TrEMBL record:
Every TAF1C beta-propeller domain range: 275-382
A Pfam family this chain is assigned to: TAF1C_beta-prop
Origin superkingdom: Eukaryota
InterPro entries per the UniProt record, alphabetical: TAF1C, TAF1C_beta-prop
PANTHER family (UniProt xref): TATA BOX-BINDING PROTEIN ASSOCIATED FACTOR RNA POLYMERASE I SUBUNIT C, TATA BOX-BINDING PROTEIN-ASSOCIATED FACTOR RNA POLYMERASE I SUBUNIT C
Regions that span the bilayer: none
Species name: Characodon lateralis
Protein name: TAF1C beta-propeller domain-containing protein
Extent of the signal sequence: none
């Protein structure tokens, strides 16, 4: 969590106590006066001085990974977990699900079996519900396990063992085998998403230079990263310190999108700039220059999730769009989409990945088409 001290700053834990205390247990340094150094020799304890072994100025915590969202303060930037989840941890997730979401895990079966079980202690048989089974002893045993954290292998209950063997495969609303396989698949997908985030490839930050000292910075903003900002900035160069960007000249021009911005692609030609922005199922094209404000030209929807958008460096208004369906389309603003390549599977081997990428090459009618298995060149003029 961002409000806790990192472990590298203060890695040891210590409690107060006399420096010459003899430990009465064999639990290592836990509970000992290990975090400070005592100096006083053989004098009385009141004359002793103590120095902490851990000094703040002696240890520095350096963040090894950059903040994923630029131009935002660390308090506003969201940073997910740095360690990818382990798919083999699905057992602990299943345990947490049964303990924290008990009504969701046992609601239906508990309502069905509730009329056939009696959970209260009764002194006479007449107070039992007709046709029900008394499971009061089993309930008390389970309450003791939960209250005192007892080991179920050491303290056993014959009635509980019989009920477990009788109803272990029907008492759950979701069978444990099915829940375990689904959790394993979800953790595997999350791990692959952290190691290679296919949706965030290409970069969502761009800079368009107007001159050697001025330019326009394009970046997403807002809580949902769904605002496209055009911010005119000034470049400051200095021999004594590194170059910096001055963004205090004015407020950015902002456009609100319906989905988070995944990629920004731009290209300048004859002082005009064409900008293409990709969301999951939306792609838009803007045009602006140093003197003209940004203007939205066209927005298109894609049936499959878009994985790449690339602006042509040769002809303004031409954009390549690739999607998870394996199709690559040439989008001419104002004229529509033209499908230039379709791949139903990966290029060279089955990588089980729907990520596709396309870019213009040095020729305006030859594009680079790639996935996670390889790359090929495609000529638009050849069917």
């Amino acid at each position: 969590m961002d409000y806790q001290f990192p472990e590298k700053l203060f890695p040891t834990f210590y409690n107060c106590g006399p420096p010459n205390l003899v430990l009465k247990h064999s639990a290592g340094g836990w509970g000992s006066y290990e975090g400070v150094l005592g100096q006083g020799g053989a004098g009385p304890l009141s004359s002793w001085t103590f120095t902490s072994r851990r000094q703040v100025q002696g240890q520095l915590w350096c963040q090894m990974e950059p903040v994923p969202v630029p131009l935002l303060s660390p308090r506003k930037a969201f940073q997910g977990y740095l360690k990818p989840p382990d798919p083999l941890d699905f057992l602990s997730h299943m345990q947490n699900f049964f303990m924290d979401n008990g009504p969701d895990a046992f609601r239906c079966m508990s309502e069905i079996l509730g009329d056939n079980n009696y959970f209260r202690k009764a002194k006479t048989k007449e107070k039992y519900r007709k046709g029900s089974v008394n499971v009061w002893k089993t309930k008390c045993y389970v309450d003791l396990l939960y209250k005192y954290n007892m080991c179920p292998m050491t303290y056993q209950s014959m009635s509980l063992n019989k009920y477990c063997s009788l109803m272990s495969d029907v008492i759950h609303d979701i069978p444990p085998e099915l829940l375990g396989s689904l959790l394993y698949e979800e953790l595997t997908a999350q791990r692959d998403h952290v190691q290679f985030n296919e949706g965030a490839t290409g970069g969502a930050l761009a800079f368009v230079p107007f001159s050697q000292s001025e330019g326009c910075l394009l970046y997403p903003g807002g809580l949902g990263m769904n605002n496209l900002n055009f911010h005119k900035v000034a470049l400051e160069f200095s021999c004594e310190r590194s170059s910096c960007v001055d963004a205090s000249s004015g407020e950015p021009v902002s456009f609100q999108l319906k989905a988070p911005i995944r990629q920004i692609s731009c290209c300048s030609l004859f002082s005009d700039c064409c900008v293409a922005v990709r969301s999951d199922y939306l792609c838009g094209v803007w045009r602006f220059s140093e003197r003209n404000e940004p203007c939205l030209l066209q927005v298109v929807n894609t049936k499959a999730a878009a994985t790449c958008v690339s602006v042509s460096p040769h002809i303004l208004g031409e954009v390549l769009v690739a999607s998870e369906s394996g199709a690559a389309n040439l989008w001419t603003v104002g004229r529509g989409m033209q499908k230039v390549r379709v791949e139903e599977s990966n290029l060279y081997f089955n990588a089980k990945s729907s990520w596709r990428w396309c870019e213009f090459s040095a020729h305006p009618r030859v594009m680079l088409y790639a996935d996670r298995t390889g790359a090929e060149l495609t000529d638009f003029r050849v069917k």
